[in-house]
Specification:
By secondary structure, the chain is of the alpha/beta class. It is built from 8 helices and 12 strands. The chain binds calcium ion (CA).
Length: about 230
């Protein structure tokens, strides 16, 4: 039995029902609020393992709830999955930049919801700039100690920027990163990025990855993520 506690902040009853039903069926302990301000109180009182947060909410909008959470030491590390309507890509970008972990666009399939929830909970303890010595995703292997990337066991030559970019994505599979986040993190690691256009670097990485190029996914209007598998 899975007893992770999840708070759902959403004002559309049908969506709350779909989310609650599916999460409860998987054994999660689900609590919900239909206003942003009430949701924030619930989150502070319950300190859940995960928050599923709608953006357009009465009382307080989702981005404000997320901001408040991230400035509160008690709940700042609680992961957040934003739930947005179609066409709210710019809000998703802001949400990810202020600390949300992932997002879902309505309408979503229960399967997609559960996959996101499981991935975020699994990553739960992993913090930014996590460095493990070896990351393997399908036929891609990244050796961070030797600065080596292999696809189907053949070495792939990447520039320093490309390597950091790929490593950043791969260190948190399934997590959506905005272009700005990727750029900041790569620059933050001390790499001199001559071309600040992330898309150009991603294109180069994909080309070099060949068969494994599909592991780096484009999220339209948002950014990139590494496949979670
Ligand atoms: Ca709403």
């Amino acid at each position: 039995m899975n007893r992770s506690k999840i708070v759902v902040v959403e004002d559309e009853p049908d969506i709350v029902e779909v989310i609650s039903y599916n999460l409860k069926r998987e054994g999660y302990n689900v609590l919900s609020a239909d206003r942003g301000d009430e949701g924030l109180n619930l989150i502070r009182n319950e300190a859940p393992d995960l928050v599923i947060l709608d953006l357009m909410l009465p009382g307080m909008d989702g981005l404000s709830v997320c901001r408040q959470m991230k400035s509160d030491p008690i709940v700042r590390d609680v992961p957040v999955i934003i739930v947005s309507a179609k066409g709210e890509e710019s809000d998703i970008v802001i949400g990810l930049e202020i600390g949300a972990d992932d997002y879902l666009t309505k309408p979503f399939a229960p399967r997609e919801l559960l996959a996101r929830v499981k991935a975020v909970l699994r990553r739960g303890g992993i913090k930014e700039h996590q460095t493990s010595e070896r990351i393997a995703i399908q036929n891609l292997v990244i050796d961070t100690v030797r600065h080596e990337v292999r696809v189907n066991d053949s070495p792939v030559e990447l520039t320093a920027t490309e390597f950091k970019l790929l490593h950043q994505l791969a260190s948190q599979p399934g997590r959506a990163f905005t272009r700005e986040q990727l750029l900041n993190r790569v620059v933050g690691l001390g790499v001199v990025v001559v071309d600040r256009n992330i898309d150009v670097h991603i294109r180069a990485v994909r080309k070099k990855l060949g068969e494994a190029s599909g592991l780096v996914q484009t999220i339209r209007g948002v950014g990139y993520r590494m496949i979670d598998a």
